[in-house]
Design the sequence.
């Protein structure tokens, strides 16, 4: 009886009394109607704040990173972050060193790209990104020498503007997800009316343990990075280091290193998904709602990923730009899950070889975790600046699961952290007229979807909801762009 009450779809199969079925289904429709009404207002949408419990599977939480051997070939796509693709400033056959700038930022929201190895530029050509878009990419053949560019020296920073300029030159982008250039966030923290800086160490996706290890292995770098922020951006009254409770060692380390700083508060958060998503975390910590299309800085706060903060400290001391990174490598096809220190642009194949993946039983590789990861289309494709994990699944785990028709249970709506209705996006995408389709997608706020995957995860019919959400967002953006032109 409990099951039939909890999952009303089961009633269809289990309950012979049609009257009871009607009563329970009506209750569900009423709940969904309330949720739908609350979606009319962004504030009410967030007040729902759906979250889910996930198995953590943080197998590598206790593993410090091992460094992989330098690969022979590096591929550097010009688009590795949110913003305009970088522009190559090298030519084929040019010699480069470790840290040589090979591409310049194109405009304000962009980031330069540097070589992680010494060697020769072999090719500059078109490249297909994992998200289906194309850009240029620079291919570098390593000479194995790892000769460091003689021009690399620590930047001179005496004020906030110089700090922003230095971090812009470092090529740093947000390392926890979308990859927004960090210099732009720093500028927001300086120019807007900010009272709180959030250091995001939530790391809520299963498997990934990169930020956890940063807080344990590079706790002093995190502390120095926070000090830099405090020194050059004195406006904010508080700095919150937010960590999920499933990282007790990281919480302990952070509490220790910030013990003498009254401005810094270390907050242990419940282990719920998507706790680390920007909008969710701001709401959880401060009770503030980021309106659709706006940034945390519009509600008085700025958020930095904890590993980005640790890098800032390292860069200011060494001048070494963002060229190598830590990646969690795990999944059922990996014999030896690890945290690995790898050059940006190393191929998935080289990294998986280092982690003893079973290539004969490899079904799928994801950039990122199981909830938000994007499938790689080629083992020779590179990792990007913001790739924090590679999840390699065996053939069995990669097989598509049987899908069933929607049973209107409303679980996808109830668990959406943004209070959206993914079934409405499905309905909208069936509309033939593109303007009518766009109007419905707009009214249902599809662009507020953060691709967290919770709706697909909770769907008992295994509907491909998050895939449809992505298609719907692309479709709406294309229609909006065609109206502007
Ligand atoms: S993927 Fe989008 S629609 Fe689905 S739960 Fe997450 S935010 Fe909501
Ligand atoms: S899409 Fe899935 S979760 Fe959403 S209402 Fe239908 S069956 Fe339920």
Sequence:
């Amino acid at each position: 009886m409990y099951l039939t009450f909890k999952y009303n779809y089961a009633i269809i199969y289990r309950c012979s009394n049609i009257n009871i079925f009607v009563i329970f289904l009506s209750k569900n429709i009423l709940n969904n109607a309330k949720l739908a009404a609350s979606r009319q207002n962004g504030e009410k949408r967030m007040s729902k704040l759906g979250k889910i419990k996930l198995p953590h599977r943080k197998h590598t939480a206790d593993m410090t990173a091992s460094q992989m051997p330098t690969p022979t070939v590096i591929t550097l796509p010009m688009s590795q972050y949110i913003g305009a693709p970088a522009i190559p400033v090298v030519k084929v056959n040019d010699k480069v060193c470790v840290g040589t700038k090979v591409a310049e930022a194109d405009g304000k929201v962009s980031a330069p790209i540097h070589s992680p190895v010494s060697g020769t530029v072999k090719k500059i050509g078109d490249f297909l990104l994992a998200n289906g878009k194309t850009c240029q990419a620079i291919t570098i053949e390593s000479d194995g020498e790892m000769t460091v560019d003689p021009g690399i020296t620590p930047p001179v920073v005496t004020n906030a503007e110089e700090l922003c300029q230095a971090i812009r030159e470092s090529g740093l982008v947000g390392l926890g997800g979308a990859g927004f250039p960090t210099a732009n966030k720093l500028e927001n923290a300086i120019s807007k009316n900010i009272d709180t800086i959030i250091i995001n160490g939530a790391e809520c996706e299963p498997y990934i343990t990169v930020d956890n290890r940063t807080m344990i292995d590079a706790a002093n770098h995190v502390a120095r990075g926070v000090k830099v922020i405090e020194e050059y951006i004195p406006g904010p009254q508080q700095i919150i280091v937010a960590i999920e409770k499933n990282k007790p060692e990281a919480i302990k380390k952070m509490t220790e290193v910030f013990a003498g700083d009254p401005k810094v508060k270390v907050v242990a958060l419940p282990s719920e998904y998507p706790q680390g998503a920007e909008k969710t975390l701001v709401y959880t910590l401060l009770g503030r709602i980021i309106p659709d299309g706006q940034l945390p800085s519009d509600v008085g706060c700025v958020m930095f990923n904890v590993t980005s903060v640790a890098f800032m400290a390292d860069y200011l001391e060494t001048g070494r730009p963002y060229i190598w990174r830590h990646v969690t490598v795990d999944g059922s096809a990996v014999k030896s899950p690890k945290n690995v220190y790898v050059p940006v642009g190393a191929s998935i194949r080289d990294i998986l070889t280092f982690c003893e993946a079973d290539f004969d039983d490899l079904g799928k590789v994801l950039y990122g975790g199981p909830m938000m990861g994007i499938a790689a289309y080629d083992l020779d494709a590179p990792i990007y600046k913001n790739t924090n994990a590679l999840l390699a699944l065996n053939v069995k785990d990669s097989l598509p699961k049987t899908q069933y028709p929607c049973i209107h249970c409303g679980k996808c709506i109830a668990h959406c952290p943004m209070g959206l209705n993914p079934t409405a996006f499905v309905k909208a995408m069936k509309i033939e007229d593109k303007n009518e389709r766009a109007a419905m997608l707009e009214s249902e706020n599809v662009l507020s979807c953060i691709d967290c995957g919770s709706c697909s995860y909770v769907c008992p019919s295994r509907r491909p909801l998050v895939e449809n959400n992505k298609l719907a967002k692309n479709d709406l953006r294309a229609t909006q762009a065609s109206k502007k032109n």
